[in-house]
Write a structure and sequence with these properties.
The protein is α+β, with helices and mostly antiparallel strands. The protein has helices spanning 8-26, 29-38, 41-58, 60-63, 167-203, 205-219, 223-233, 240-253, 257-270, 274-281, 286-294, 299-322, 334-338, 344-349, 355-378, 382-385; strands at 86-89, 92-99, 102-107, 113-118, 124-137, 141-150.
Length: 386
């Protein structure tokens, strides 16, 4: 019989297995979380979708062909249907995508609604990297180059609204606006939760009791009546930017109690551990102990909580803007755009108004799946339970 221990292939396999075991036992906490996260197919797909949405929002001024706030740019194509570039028609095919010019007129057969007539004998070619409306990329870099445009006329991939605004351009900018509001709200709530939950959990005693009473009082405040009261006192002359920052701050100020509770519970458990006592005996200050020893042991769960809370911030902004208490025109957010889909005329005749709804659902679901994947990856006992 052949001695398998002398087989080169078997020896190579054993060496590779030993290397994997060594890498596992020497890996950092972040590397272990990433390794477990990569094995979850749904979470990885959601992460790619989320990354695509974030990049499309971040580079929205370059990707969108027109200024989303310009009204009546295409006055002859109000409430226009989506236009899809094509490569072939009755006259043959082309390597360059093109559109046929469209004329609109009222028709008696459709109760004087707009009827579109396509001139198939003429082609309007789509151009790439064209000069257009000026913008500031990332709010800092001035530019006027757009990914695509038309040599003549206009191209509306998602159609237009009643004011003639390009829905494709508005959707990309709306995704970025909602992400910005969510990010600011999460950052504010995160800082408050770290400070309040850390102080409450580390010191305990009467200070913990007072802080928890305040936390419970804030948690019991209903969000919608609170925003209705705040909206009544917002001055009408406030600019869209001021309203934007105000809504972000309010979302952050009412979103910290849950995370603060979790941090407090963790610190109450860990503050009497030996490594904490050793740091205190070495002369470390309470702030140093919390920042360098206690919070790092809870970092993975804090990150997971932030990712999971992000879609709720986006949902809150969208809901408030949807009912008219949040952002308003000319700011483009998903909530502002969803206001238009409640009209009966839109439901019957202009179904392309629902395209931003699909982006909203994709954004929220991507955050939910990524958050669930991170939560399972950060839990070292998740695979054991499965």
């Amino acid at each position: 019989m052949t001695d398998l221990s002398q087989d080169p292939q078997t020896a190579a396999d054993e060496a590779a297995l030993d290397a994997k075991k060594q890498a596992y036992f020497t890996a950092s906490q972040g590397q272990l979380i990433w390794a477990r996260f990569r094995r979850q197919r749904a979470a990885m797909i959601a992460a790619r979708v989320l990354l695509l949405l974030i990049l499309s929002g971040l580079f929205a001024p370059f990707l969108s062909p027109y200024d989303p706030t310009a009204k009546g740019r295409d006055a002859d194509y109000l409430n226009g249907a989506p236009q899809i570039p094509q490569f072939c028609d009755k006259n043959g095919c082309s390597l360059r995508p093109f559109m046929h010019p469209v004329t609109r007129e009222r028709s008696l057969a459709t109760n004087f609604r707009w009827v579109e007539k396509i001139n198939e004998d003429e082609r309007l070619y789509v151009q790439f990297f064209v000069k257009g409306d000026s913008y500031r990329l990332f709010g800092l870099i001035p530019g006027s180059l757009h990914l695509f445009g038309m040599e003549e006329g206009y191209l509306h991939l998602f159609g237009t609204d009643a004011a003639g605004k390009d829905i494709f351009s508005r959707t990309l900018h709306a995704v970025w606006t909602s992400l910005q509001v969510g990010t600011m709200g999460v950052v504010i709530s995160f800082v408050l939760a770290l400070v309040i939950g850390g102080v409450s959990g580390f010191y305990g005693g009467w200070l913990d009791s007072v802080i928890q009473m305040v936390t419970d009082a804030i948690r019991t405040v209903p969000a919608i009546p609170l925003f209705m009261a705040i909206a009544a006192f917002i001055p009408a002359e406030w600019s869209a930017e001021m309203r934007f920052f105000f809504i972000s701050m309010i979302l952050g100020l009412i979103g910290w109690p849950t995370l603060a509770r979790r941090i407090r519970t963790h610190l109450l458990t860990e503050r009497n551990q030996d490594y904490v006592l050793a740091a205190q005996l070495a002369g470390a200050s309470p702030a140093h102990v919390i920042r360098r020893h206690l919070l790092p042991s809870f970092t993975s769960y804090i990150i997971v909580d932030l990712v999971i809370s992000f879609p709720y911030m986006v949902l809150s902004e969208t809901a408030l803007s949807f009912i008219g208490l949040g952002l308003k025109d000319p700011v483009n957010s998903l909530g502002v755009m969803l206001q238009n889909v409640t009209k009966s005329d839109v439901l019957l005749n202009y179904q392309w108004y629902f395209i931003p709804v699909l982006f909203f659902i994709a954004l929220v679901m991507a955050f939910v799946f990524v958050g669930d994947g991170l939560r399972d990856a950060a839990d070292p006992y998740s695979e054991t339970r499965k």
